[in-house]
Amino acid sequence: MILCLDTGNSQIHGGVFADGTLRAQFRKSTHPLGSSDELGVFFMAVLRAQGIEPSSIKRIALCSVVPAALHSIRGACERYFGHAPFVLQAGVKTGLKIKYRNPHEVGSDRIANGIGATQLHPGKDLIVVDCGTATTFDVVTAAGDYLGGVIMPGLGISAETLASNTAKLRRVEITKPDHALGRSTVESIQSGLYNGHVGAIRHILWSLTIENFPGTSPVVIGTGGFAGMFRDAGLFPEVIPDLVLRGLHRAAELNPGAELAAE
Fold this sequence. Notes:
The chain is an alpha/beta fold. The chain folds into two domains: 2-87, 2-Layer Sandwich (Nucleotidyltransferase, domain 5), CATH 3.30.420.40; 97-247, Nucleotidyltransferase, domain 5 (2-Layer Sandwich). It is 36% helix and 24% strand. The strands form two sheets. It has a six-stranded mixed β-sheet, sandwiched between helices. A five-stranded mixed β-sheet has the order 3-2-1-4-5. Helix 1 packs across helix 2 (70-81) and helix 3 (108-120) crosses helix 6.
């Protein structure tokens, strides 16, 4: 079995694959992250709670957009599972040709999304929209060229910024409103967050398509914690919440023994 860990700004999203099938998933807040021991105990407990014996984990794959978290997670993997993790980073095999001006700037989670999308739709033009702490757009051509994308504040950041920088607006639950017209301050904020995001996503998808795939229609995939909220908005034909884990698993397959070579 392979344990895959996606360390984001808000959460660690973990999953266990057996024979290419995702058998279990879990999430843990990264605030606070905890020590290596605390993480190790958590990983062991959450796997056992889902019927997976930690000793059955034969490999660990990791991507992270939080550099400070790498030391603690690496220590937890080595101490509690006996395996150094494979880390998805610049220089490893991905199956993609990175066309970013500086490939080292691309977040490893965005690369994992690109890998996962191309595995699901080989030979197709793709746009992946990841609705998490930030909302990111990643453009991959049918030939496997990762062209780049767009980064904008996510729903959570937008809600927090609005509450933190105004005197009378409060923190609200992030949810899909029933109507565009809000009849209370809470409803008005919720409508602005949701409908503003829908409008931004729709416009960015349109712009990326006409710039990079004129005359054709790329496959658009939604992923990330908030993607399900937009399932009925006509933005994403597909919503695949575990896309980054699938891509991370595939990256590990493309780099057998890479963690041993790095030691």
